[in-house]
Amino acid sequence: MTTRPEIVLVHGDITAQDTDVIVNAANSSLLGGGGVDGAIHRRGGPAILAECRRLRAGHLGRGLPTGRAVATTAGDLAARWVVHTVGPVHSREEDRSDLLASGYRESLRLAAELGAETVAFPAISTGVYGWPMDDGARIAIRTVREAATAPVREVRFVLFDRAAYETFAAALG
Ligand code: APR
After folding, report:
1. Could you tell me the residue ranges of all domains in the chain?
2. pLDDT tens per residue, range 48-72
3. What is the pLDDT of residues 105-117, one digit of tens each?
4. Looking at the domain 6-172, which fold is it?
5. Which of 97, 88, 89, 90 is nearest to 68 (CA)?
6. Atom of ligand 1 nearest to the CA of 39
C-alpha cells in the first residue's frame, strides 16, 4: 500500500522552512541565480555553492539537465539537504509539461532515497522561467499525488505571494 504524502500549502519564504529537504529552483549551471536560487544560497551560505562546484567538477561537468535533481548540504538552513532541480523555461511553441513534472518527481525520488520525511517545494518555473502559475500548480499537485514517495510523509508547497497561494489552493481542490 503506497502511502500518499500529506500536501501542505504555506504562504512564506522557502528558506525559513524546517523540513528535511528544501528544493531549489536552480538553473543547469548550479552556480546560483536570483529568486529561490538566490535566497537559498544567500541564507544557506557558501557551503552549498562549494558542493555545487564540486558536482560541476565531477559527474555534472556539463551541468544539471532540465528535469533532473541533485542533493547537496543545506549549509546554514534549518533543512538537512537542499535538492536542486532545474525546471523548464515556459514555451508557447513546445509543451514542456513533462519536464516540469520530472523536476518534482525526481526531487521527491531523491528526497525519499535520502530518507527525508518532509520536503518543501517552491513553485518551480513560475518565476524567471515564466510558467503560468495555474498550470504550474496543476502539474505540481498532480505529480506529487501520483508519486510513490515513502518515507516522505509531508510535501509542503511554499508560495511567496498570496496570489500563488490562492492558485495552489484552487488546484488542490
Ligand atoms: N521562497 C519561496 N518562493 C519564492 C522565493 C522564496 N524565497 N523567491 C521567489 N519565489 C517564488 C517566485 O515568486 C516564483 O513563484 O518561486 C517561484 C519560482 O521562481 P524563480 O525563483 O524565479 O525560479 P524559476 O522560475 O524556476 O527560474 C529559475 O531563476 O533564480 C534563477 O538561477 C535561477 O536561472 C534559474 C531561474
Report:
1. 6-172
2. 999 999 999 999 999 999 999 999 9
3. 999 999 999 999 9
4. Leucine Aminopeptidase, subunit E; domain 1 (3.40.220)
5. 88
6. 7
Looking at 20, 37, 76, 135, which residue is catalytic?
37
Mean pLDDT by 10 residues, the chain (173 residues): 85 98 98 98 98 98 98 98 98 98 98 98 98 98 94 98 98 95
- Does 37 participate in catalysis according to the annotation? yes
Cell numbers at 102, concatenated: 520530472
Query: How many angstroms from the chain centroid is the CA of residue 25?
Result: 5
Counting atoms of ligand 1 from 1, which one is nearest the CA of 136? 15
Separation of 2 CA from ligand 1 center, angstroms?
A: 31
Taking the whole predicted model, whether its pTM rises above 0.85 is answered as: yes
Q: How far apart are CA 40 and CA 36, in angstroms?
A: 6
